[in-house]
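dude i think i finally got it to work??
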Amino acid sequence: MRYRLVCLDAGFTLLAPRRTLAAALGGVLAERGHPVSEEQLHAAWQVANRWFWEDYHRPDNRTWGDDAAIERTWRQYHALMLSELGYADRRHELLDLILASQFSADAWELYPDVEPTLTALKAIPGMTLAVVSDWGSNLVGITQALGLDRWVDFVLASGAEGLAKPDPAFFGVALSRAGVGPGEALMVGDTYHADVEGAIRAGMDGVLLRRPSEQPGPVLPVEEPPPGTTIISSLTALLPMVSARR
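look at this
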């Protein structure tokens, strides 16, 4: 059976941040006359990053299926950094500016392997491409601004759907939208727990993307996927996999 649907995560799979979250926060502070050193930013980022992943892996975490909860999480993330930098009393003034900087379309760019890979996949007869990501509803506007709608048939943002990875129901929405069965679908993303394990639980195949370059943003603690997990270092590695399945 061939693949008829390829789902791709957004951040760090298709979309690369132009600046780290710490750098974006530092830029806003500098613009407001509050410059901080790289060492101070890094120390503050470590505190926020530790909190982020502890919260993300809470068994009862439902954050990513709700736009308002997603925004609260990012506000808390940056508020922690501001507190560590000594600007806790300025957070109400600064947080809107920081979030606007983080989630504007021009804060992101496509990885170099995105265009050639999606062009080749889109050329396969009967192929549907989708973005399936734990992200707020603003993801649709970001993908359109970056031109992904040239290749992608639809975008599922968890905040808009009320569902998030690794819930199999979230992947089920993609299967239903594409009109394919689980055995005809592949999910590609940069986290084993959310992307690969979630897809497998939904009956799909899953591929873990581990790019060789350091990824800015909330850095995921190293996950050791189980033996047999398919791991690639570039999206272009999908092409022979999909062709072989045909």
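The longest helix spans residues 38-56.
im so relieved honestly
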